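About this split. The held-out portion is used to measure sequence recovery: a designer receives only the structure tokens and must propose an amino acid at every position. Recovery is the fraction of positions where the proposal matches the reference. Here is one held-out target exactly as it appears in the evaluation file.
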């Protein structure tokens, strides 16, 4: 048995050594998100080939994996991008209904396809980048930068009344994207993503075993993909999320040597 396993490992290593692996991805997007306003004719994002080889760039929009039918299009859907060159992807709305009272979210996909290598035994990989694309109606209530202050919070019971979950409600018309949720000063880090407009998300808690008050530090992303200042909320126990005022997290105190300087 051990002899057979060693033979398999040896074969796998020899197989890998027989191939040349390509360099890192060469096509870079000029942003981490795109926002298309209802009154905008189009939204755009640059793509640049920072590598040394040409690529074919394929671009498309989806509403989630496997949901490729959307009322938005991106052009050009297929293009060649030579080393050092930049192109502009343009996103436009076409026929189709979208909610007028809230943002809609889609995903912009950009795949870089390398040219076929002239050498033998070269493993080539088509790398795909995927970023959020928001469609924003013109007459939404409030402002996007105010949405995180409207979040509602609670610690409720988990499934079948077992354990505890952190509930986050979003009564605003805008998506709120978290970068992290830090529970009780580091007892648990929740890899949260996005709370939809007029929606709610629930995150299982391992830091506490029953519904009880906790402290949560959080940051979010703004329209430009930048991180907002870290804020802190004292989340109460309860069945339904409630409004809780967040406070800015004070910066860490300087160390002894820094304080002396």
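Reference sequence for scoring:
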């Amino acid at each position: 048995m051990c002899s057979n396993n060693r033979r398999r490992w040896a074969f796998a290593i020899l197989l890998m050594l027989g191939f040349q692996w390509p360099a890192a991805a060469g096509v870079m997007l000029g942003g981490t998100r795109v926002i298309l306003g209802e009154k905008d004719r189009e939204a755009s994002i640059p793509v640049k080939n920072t590598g040394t080889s040409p690529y074919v760039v394929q671009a498309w929009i989806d509403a989630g994996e496997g949901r490729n039918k959307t009322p938005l299009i991106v052009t050009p859907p297929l293009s060649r991008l030579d080393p050092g060159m930049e192109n502009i992807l343009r996103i436009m709305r076409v026929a189709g209904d979208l909610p007028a009272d809230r943002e809609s979210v889609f995903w912009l996909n950009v795949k870089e396809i390398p040219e076929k290598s002239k050498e033998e035994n070269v493993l080539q990989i088509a790398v795909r980048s995927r970023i959020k694309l928001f469609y924003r109606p013109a007459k939404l209530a409030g402002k996007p930068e105010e949405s995180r202050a409207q979040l509602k919070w609670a610690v409720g019971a988990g499934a079948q009344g077992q354990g505890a979950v952190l509930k986050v409600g979003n009564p605003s018309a805008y998506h709120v994207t978290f970068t992290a949720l830090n529970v009780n000063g580091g007892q648990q880090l929740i890899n949260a993503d996005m709370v939809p407009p007029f929606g709610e998300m629930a995150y299982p808690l391992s830091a506490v075993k029953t519904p009880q008050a906790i402290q949560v530090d959080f940051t979010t992303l703004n329209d430009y993909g930048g991180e907002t200042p870290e804020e802190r909320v004292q989340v109460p126990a309860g069945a339904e999320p409630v409004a809780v005022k967040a406070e800015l997290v004070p910066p860490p105190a300087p160390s002894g040597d820094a304080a002396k300087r």
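Annotator remark: The radius of gyration is 24 Å.
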